[in-house]
Design brief:
- It contains 29 helices and ten strands.
- It has a three-stranded antiparallel β-sheet with strand order 3-10-4. A three-stranded antiparallel β-sheet has the order 8-5-9. A two-stranded parallel sheet has the order 1-2.
- Helices cover 64% and strands 8% of the residues.
- The protein is globular and about 95 Å long.
Amino acid sequence: MCAPNLPFRIWLILLGLTLFAHPAAAQDACHGKTVKFAGLNWESGEFLTAVMRQVVARGYGCKTDTVPGNTVTLEQALADDDIQIVAEEWVSRSDTWKKAADAGKVKALGHPFTGASEGWYVPDYMVEGPGALTPELHDVAQLGQAKYLKLFNDPEQPAKGRFLNCPSGWTCEGVNTAKLHAYGLDGLYVDFRPGTGPAMDAAIASAYAQKRPILFYYWSPSAIAGKLKLKRLNEPPYSDACWSDLTSKTGRHVQGCTAPPADIAWGASAPFVAHNPEIAAVLNKATVPLDLLNANLVAIVDGHAAPDAQAEAFLRTRPDLWRAWVTPEAARRIAASLKAGAPAVAAKSNFPFTVSIRAPVNAAIDSLVAKHGGVFRAISSVLLGAIVALDGLLALIPWWLMIAGLMALAWLGTRRIGLTVAVGALMFILGALGLWDLMVQTLSLVLISCLLAAVTGLPLGVLAARRTGVKAVMMPVLDVMQTMPSFVYLIPALMLFGLGKVPAVLATLIYCLPPIIRLTALGLEQVDPEIREAGLAFGLDPWQMLWRVELPQARPQIMAGINQMIMLALSMVAIASMIGARGLGEQVLNGIQTLDVGQGLEAGLGIVILAFVLDRISQGFGRAGRVR
């Protein structure tokens, strides 16, 4: 009797050991598949994503990951089941979502929060308190008055006001543009798009710290709404017909109104909902009160905390809230996981300790902005004046004359008729694509950045060639400047000088400066000693030696440095669209954000054409200067 039962008992023992050794596998409600979350790039989206990732991982044993992208691309990925969950979907605000929902490809589940709001805002210090700049301002209908145009004037177009719109490609960007037209303000205000969400937040926070006037669109929940005191301007009441017209790309946009109450849901792909009912049930129940959500977002910003760390703190301190979202078994597993200190997401490094410089660097930048913001604004005004003047000068040049001038430079530099004709043809194609005005804006930023870099870099290159000690210090600094990711330069420039062309020029200056310094020093060091000796024999003093002998001999290397400087400046100006620099880069960013392949390709082709023209002209003058 016992012998036949022995294998069955052994099997039970082995099964028990397997379950004990792999508890996560037994708890996996996702069937071994990784749940991919949308990597939302705004604060509330990041926090809610982190919270739900930990709930799903700790309570249900699922592997999770995030996929970065912008709103439109992530919604399309959700429709294709390439990602499974979007933590904060503003339902009915996007054509991509609507089409996917109508086709049954996505589902709106529950509400991550309720009571969201959006609208046009000014800081409270402008309208409230004894020192208020404009206590009578309370309605968007007043914004067309001359005094408000002057108060909110755009530094780049002083005759107009500036309205800070949503980042490029966000759904609210199109709605606000339609509202500007509906309110009759589109000819009075510059519709300024900051490029990215962090750039927008930095511009608002910087203006608030310096008590400057600013008119902008914003929303709640957000760290800005939770931390700063803002005054929302009144708009005409909502109506279905008005809102439908404002949100339609083909609408007439003749009537403006306030936004309807926001319908915000957890977005999930239909296949995921069908195959993972336990997780779908969690999403249907998971709601965070708006004031608590804002408090957590402020904690992230003020404490410079990662969303994952703040999400864990939220789970530890508010079990009364999240226990209602999950099953009792999942709640026990979450509690046990938190008590054990186990991370929901595996650490990416096994290094024993880490040190962060974020806090002191951020504190230093904040202090500079608060204490010396006026100084930086004064510098910004001077630079902006030069940029606007150059913009105006280039805009006065007829298109045919500019093409002729570039062809003349190409001929003088290369003496090649084929290349000269190619330069003219390519510039004509660029104009025919409707990119001429954007090209002029990009060209002006490149020219002024390169002019500043040349004025700074040439003397530093000479100094490095003449002084060994200076070179020993300078070269490591240049190494850092060249290897540092170009995006990093945008952050301090934005905080200190605001959005637009000035921070773009300064960030570009830093990025394109190293090659002109390096190659100037290299060219001077390679001057033939016998030529120097001949100069000394003729009685040349050091300055005469530099101007008459060394610089002419080093001209090929110097021109190579100028060529590299121009190419780096052009690439950086395109990236600077992320902080509101207008030009071809902005069109590329818009194309990426809205999945408009044609727009991105057109603008990208414009950048390639401009790069080709500038590269061949500068190379031509470099070759023309070679010593034979």
